[in-house]
Design a protein that fits this description.
Structural class of chain A: alpha+beta
CATH architecture of chain A: Beta Barrel
Order of helices and strands of chain A: HHHEEEEEEHEEEEEE
Distance between the termini of chain A: 34 Å
Number of strands of chain A: 12
Number of domains of chain B: 3
Shape of chain B: globular
Strand content of chain A: over 45%
Number of domains of chain A: 1
Structural class of chain B: alpha+beta
CATH topology of the largest domain in chain B: Porin
Radius of gyration of chain B: 29 Å
Oligomer: heterodimer
Strand order of the largest sheet of chain A: 5-4-3-2-1-12-11-10-9-8-7-6
Radius of gyration of chain A: 18 Å
Largest sheet of chain A: 12 strands, antiparallel
Helix content of chain A: 10-25%
Mean pLDDT of chain B: 88
Chain lengths: 234, 713
């Protein structure tokens, strides 16, 4: 019977956290918005735990984050924002396979991270199926510079796997202190710029001294654009 | 052979993938949807296929595109369905009505088929060149042929010029002639009028299109169609060969055209486009699957790894129950399970995922959570209609290691086997899997098209389906419908000639308020490797009842399959739900099926039809991996064309649309559209539901591999 209980635990006890996903602001998709969005998110999250407790309403991400932190005492949590639509939600850990952690939102959309690096999404539509990172995840976690070849795979409209091969250069940047939820830590900003001919995008990671990603802005595909991932509790 | 196919596919996807993603990224940057190209690049004329107004162009639509158009001017109205069959070839089916063209009808309705083939595409200097046939199997009334060239000059202007025969040589004839054109109108229509193709006088036509803006296009042409018959009849005034028009894209995939035609009348057209290659959401928007769970280390679960747990036999029932529960959440039904210390086999039913690879993927993920660590091999056997159709053998280690790797690696680690070829441990049925009772009630719309007196007749009502499967393979199925309103029974049946027994021409007589469409007992089995059988007894279809038997031989690795079907049936009574009439017949076919591997699938049925006529049906489908099918069929039997009646022989077009393509979440439902000739008695086949081939094939290796990309989705 031990295995059956094990299964039930796994299947039933999927910790899924508050996820108020709404379409708010913005269909402005220019990539240079990333920085502004991050600043915006940063202020929002800070204010949730600081001075500005007056900001309320069901659609307020501050309230959502605060509620999630209260409701899921002690559990690792991540705030996720889809820049393209402005939709956001909270994610908790769904599974762990080797170095890859899978996070899931309440509406059962998942994102899998190989250490700091997004390696798969499920449930968005036009999902990122897999990434062969050529060592990028290791370099970023170690806060080292380097050049790699990455292969992103997607499904086309016929369920065939298409791949996009990119050349990426990883460059360590400045040190920044990130305050996010109950986390406050010093990080190094790692920038990874990937190109294929005229097409290019930049992923930005804030990596702490232990090599953990505190926050990041990562490309999830042509349709889904950039995802903002921000840990609010380790 | 399968291997080779896979390798080739990989190469093409590499190239294709880059193209797709690059186009997508453009849209990210400038927010211009890439689909806009579909409609903008190719203008559709009044014949509902690439053209200016009445004249054709050498353009092609994107591969696979389906277009539906309605156009009218003067006394004519035309509805057209066009399909880009291959990147170079397109086919159209039109239904054209002309006011007062003859004395016998107020509106003369004609069905026509057009084909066009682009010989060369456009180069820097070279124009695109295409040949086309209009109305090549119709009554010959609208028949014409052409060779046309189109060249872009700059980004906005396209110039077209061509040579035409038949109708397209009735104005501005060059004065040269290619042999004699046989001008006789074929009364019953429907046969290839190849005797007149590219024969007789040659006319010249030409024109241009100019994109004033991205949405607005100016069209001008010199038409070589003088509308001779229409002018003589006095229903159209042909004052000038020049036509001008404006076309406006009200949506990336819908455009409208207004035109001034032949110096006399105003023309109007609308056409909409849809491409089966582009679903609402690539890969679907269903929720994320369960993550794979690694087994604990050997030291953490020594008992589980040792396999000694199997000794007391107490784990299996609990695993079965938990497994069934987890599978149910994914829309899968556990039918039976076997378990040893190292191997687990799961027999399952999949009613949710049209991509069977996705069902296997979700099952794999669940399995990593369900079984003790010593279980190393998973066998997933899909059961269809009670028949175990295919076993997929997957090593547990591969699932654990490849969760975030490209799907191709998982495919390389997977084996497909006929369940009958696999040594099986004793299977224990899951509680509650049988008897399986399903029922549904849904509204239905059944339409009869192309009746000259009323082009569309329809019945609207409620239809109920019942299925009760007692044990695997043995079931009772029934369909009944309740008509709310409709006019199909007003159809006058012309059974005045006695050449053939009325087996289908009396269809309207069955259009009662309450109909028992079918009530039958079925027995499906997979008795031996590669062999599938089925027997059905009862009221098999709306008009016939009796007994039918079917055998299918299909090897998973073969692209072809062979089947045979024999039935003894009696004609059902018009009124009495359970009664029969006197007419009975032994009917049956030998069927050959072939998957050509390039998206085309063929089927040939040879045998005896319901009216005791002998012949063959050839069906050719263009199949898309995502479930779309667009096909055409034709049946030729020993019934002479004049006895068959209008159309000369039975032919039709069928389109099957997967519902998940539209809504983005998995469902096995499809919407089928069949455009048939009028119900005729020649070449009529028993309308048996649940034939073996489709059932067996859908769950088979080739189909699973085609959509393997969905395994980890």
């Amino acid at each position: 019977m031990l295995t059956a209980t094990r299964l039930r635990k796994a299947v039933m006890g999927l910790l899924v956290v508050s996820g108020l996903v709404l379409s708010a602001c913005g269909n402005d998709v220019a990539t240079d918005r990333t920085k502004a969005t991050l600043d915006e998110v940063g202020t929002l999250i800070k204010s949730a735990f600081g001075r500005n407790k007056t900001a309320t309403g069901p659609g307020d991400p501050n309230v959502m984050i605060a509620n999630a932190l209260r409701e899921f005492e002690g559990a690792p949590l991540m705030f996720v924002l889809r820049e393209k639509t402005g939709a956001y939600g909270m994610a908790s850990i769904y599974g762990q396979n080797g170095r890859v952690t899978t996070w899931v939102t309440r509406d059962v959309v998942s994102m899998s991270l190989d250490r700091p690096m997004l390696t798969a999404t499920r449930g968005f539509g036009n999902d990122l199926m897999s990434v062969e990172d050529g060592g990028a995840a290791g370099l970023i976690a170690a806060r080292q510079a380097g050049s790699v070849q990455k292969t992103y795979r997607f499904l086309d409209g016929q369920d065939r796997t298409s791949r996009l091969i990119l050349s990426c250069s990883i460059v360590p940047g400045e040190t920044q202190t990130v305050e996010s939820g109950v986390i406050s830590t010093s990080t190094r900003v790692m920038r990874e710029t990937c190109r294929k001919d005229a097409f290019k995008f930049t992923n930005t990671y804030w990596i702490d001294a232990q090599g953990r990603m505190v926050q990041s802005v990562q490309w999830a595909g042509a349709e889904n654009g950039q995802l903002v991932l921000r840990r609010v509790r380790w | 052979m399968v291997k080779r196919k896979r390798a080739a596919r990989r190469d093409s996807t590499q190239w294709f993938g880059v193209g797709v993603v690059a186009a997508g990224s453009l849209s990210v940057l400038c927010a211009a949807p890439a689909v806009a190209q579909d409609a903008k690049d190719t203008h559709y004329g009044f014949y509902g296929n690439p053209g200016l107004l009445d004249m054709p162009t050498a353009e092609v639509a994107p591969d696979g595109q389906l277009s539906l158009s309605h156009n009218r001017f003067g006394p004519m109205r035309r509805s057209t369905l066009t399909f880009q069959i291959t990147p170079k070839m397109s086919g159209s089916f039109s239904y054209t009505g002309t006011d007062d063209l003859t004395d016998s009808f107020d509106i003369y309705w004609d069905r026509t088929f057009d084909l066009s083939y682009q010989i060369v595409d456009e180069g820097t200097l070279r124009p695109a060149i295409a040949v086309g046939l209009r109305d090549f199997i119709g009554t010959g009334l609208l028949s014409s042929e052409y060779v046309v060239a189109t060249k872009s000059i700059g980004a906005r202007l396209k110039v077209t010029g061509g040579l035409g025969w038949g109708r397209l040589a009735s104005e501005n004839s060059l004065g040269l002639s290619f042999g004699e054109r046989d001008e006789t109108v074929v009364e019953t229509g429907g046969t290839l009028n190849s005797g007149q193709w590219f024969r007789g006088p040659v006319g010249t036509f030409g024109g241009l299109s100019y994109d004033i803006t991205d949405k607005l296009t100016l069209l001008a042409e010199y038409s070589s169609d003088a509308y001779v018959a229409e002018t003589e009849r006095g229903i159209l005034d042909h004052a000038s060969p020049y036509n001008v028009g404006l076309s406006y894209a009200i949506h990336p995939n819908i455009s409208m055209t207004m035109a001034y035609m032949y110096g006399d009348s105003i023309g109007f057209g609308i056409s909409g486009h849809l491409n089966p290659n582009n679903p609402a959401y690539a890969g679907g928007i269903e929720t994320a699957p369960l993550p794979v769970k690694q087994r604990p280390s050997r030291s953490a679960d020594a008992l589980g790894w040792s396999g000694a747990w199997i000794e007391d036999g107490r784990d299996a029932p609990g695993i079965r129950k938990a497994l069934a529960g987890a599978m149910a959440k994914e829309g899968l039904t556990l039918e039976a399970m076997s378990l040893t210390a190292t191997r687990a086999e799961i027999e399952f039913r999949n009613t949710r995922y049209p991509a069977h690879a996705q069902a296997l993927g979700r099952l794999s993920r669940i399995a990593t959570r369900a079984f003790p660590p010593s279980v190393e091999t998973f066998v997933f056997t899909e059961v269809v209609k009670g028949m175990p159709v295919q076993s997929t053998v997957i090593p547990r280690r591969a699932i654990e290691q490849l969760e975030f790797e490209p799907a191709g690696e998982m495919l390389a680690a997977t084996q497909f086997v006929d369940p009958r070829a696999l040594p099986s441990d004793p299977m224990v049925p899951a509680e509650g899997a049988y008897p399986d009772f399903n029922w549904s009630v849904s509204p239905y719309l059944s339409a009869t098209l192309f009746d000259p007196d009323s082009p569309i007749r329809a019945d609207l009502g409620l239809r109920g389906n019942l299925s009760y499967e007692f044990v695997p393979g043995l079931s009772l199925t029934s369909t009944a419908s309740l008509k709310m309103t409709g006019n199909v029974d007003d159809l006058e049946t012309d059974s005045d000639d006695d050449a053939l027994p009325p087996v289908r021409s009396n269809a309207a007589q069955y259009s009662n308020q309450f109909q028992l469409n079918s009530l039958a007992a079925n027995w499906y089995a997979h008795p031996a490797e590669n062999m599938f059988t089925r027997v059905s007894v009862g009221y098999l279809e709306r008009m016939f009842g009796g007994v039918a038997g079917e055998v299918l031989w299909k090897k998973p690795e073969n692209a072809y399959a062979i089947g045979a079907e024999v039935a003894y049936v009696k004609q059902r009574d018009y009124e009495d739900l359970f009664g029969f009439q006197d007419y009975d017949v032994v009917t049956g076919h030998i069927s050959g099926y072939m998957d050509f591997g390039n998206g085309f699938h063929g089927q040939l049925d040879v045998g005896r039809y319901l009216a005791e006529d002998w012949g063959a049906t050839l069906t050719l489908d263009r199949e898309f991996n995502n479930g779309w099918r667009v096909g055409a069929y034709a049946t030729l039997t020993d019934v002479p064309f004049e006895d068959f009646g209008e159309g000369s022989f039975d032919k039709g077009i069928r389109i099957s649309m997967p519902v998940d393509w539209f809504i983005g979440t998995p469902t096995a439902e499809t919407r089928d559209l069949n455009l048939n000739s009028l119900s005729r008695d020649g070449g009529a086949r028993l309308d048996l539901s649940g034939r073996l081939y489709e059932r067996v094939r859908d769950a088979g290796q080739a189909e699973v591999e085609d959509r393997w990309g969905r395994f980890w989705r």
